[in-house]
Fold these 3 entries.
Entry 1:
Amino acid sequence: MIVADTIPGTHPTIQVCGSAFFCTFNLDTLISSAIAIVLTFGIGFGVAYRLGHGKPKKLQMVLELLLGYIRNLTRELVSMDGTDFVVPIAATIFIFVLFANWLDAFPLVPPVEPAAADINLTLAMALSVIVIVQWYSIHVLGFRGYLRRFTKPFELPLLARVAFTPLNIIEEVAKPLSLALRLFGNIFGGLVMVYLLTLAYTAFAGSSLIQTAISPLWILLLVFWKLFDVFVIGTIQAFIFMLLTIIYFGMAREGLEEEHHGAPAHSNELRRETT
């Protein structure tokens, strides 16, 4: 809904296996993320069905432009042979986060709320991305090359590279935290702003004359903020989450050029096929 009737950050919970911490789930996040997942799958399968049935629609053209842009971005930031693996992940993340953020544009009824306003969801997404990135790094570099990646910068002497290893490990651990907190902070901040605007309006509840005077201005301000927050900030945050995901996949290949034997044989075959 357009006004805030509850304090941001409060979530109705359900227990699925007792009172333990890992058995407690935020009901609004489950429902909102489920809606975003259904919309993401609906768009994907719907466009895929239209590819072989009938003429292309505007939605298909938009999705093809999006996929083309992500594919080119992946070729620049990752590699030619990484597009088939990275592009579907990046595109799915963008569309899901986009729908999860755009939910706030509709007159939602609790417990439906913007899914990314829950740190649990954004942290789970960030951890999933980082786990896949680590697997991809081992797959491309081999286990020896994967460990060697934590000794960058590679141009330094071996002893200096060993000294940089703790910093590289900290950098890798910080990736999911920054990825999760960036998305959560921006979406949650939008809810806080709506809540503060609501408090400012209700502060004049004792004076009906003042409320009547500022009511049109307050509605315009609130509508403008909601549109800006949802369609501008929400879209930018979905793009940033996708872009950082692609960048992390590119970083997962660091050291491949310096140590070619660290890459699996099938990776070299894929590179030869694409060239």
Entry 2:
Amino acid sequence: MRVAYGIEVDKEPECDYLMIAEELMVAFSSVFTPGKYLVETFSVLRFLPAWMPGAGFKRDCADLKRKAE
């Protein structure tokens, strides 16, 4: 973090940047698990509205996008 962004992480026991990065990596690995969502097999499901049952992939990806911003 120091070399890339100039952020010292050794001085703070719980650095916000590290917590955000760890949280995003856990969410990223959960969302991108192969075969987790049916939309990977049936691409037409990408047109489902997010509120519809079976479109949990849209809600999960929207949550990951909010965390990444």
Entry 3:
Amino acid sequence: MLNSLPRFVDAGHSWLIECIGLFLIPFLHEDVAIVGGSLLVLEHRLPAWLAFASLFGGMVGSDMLLYGLG
């Protein structure tokens, strides 16, 4: 399982899959999502505006979910 992880990460997924991942990561931990988004932009795997939009949507969505649960 762990041997296939580097091949999965380097597989070059589409922008859609990476944006969905950036949208969902803030539900677990927002700081990790920001670092992950910045690494994707730094490695030229995702445009900055798309990473920002995905992170913004994920953070707002996760905050609204937590507010709604409270």
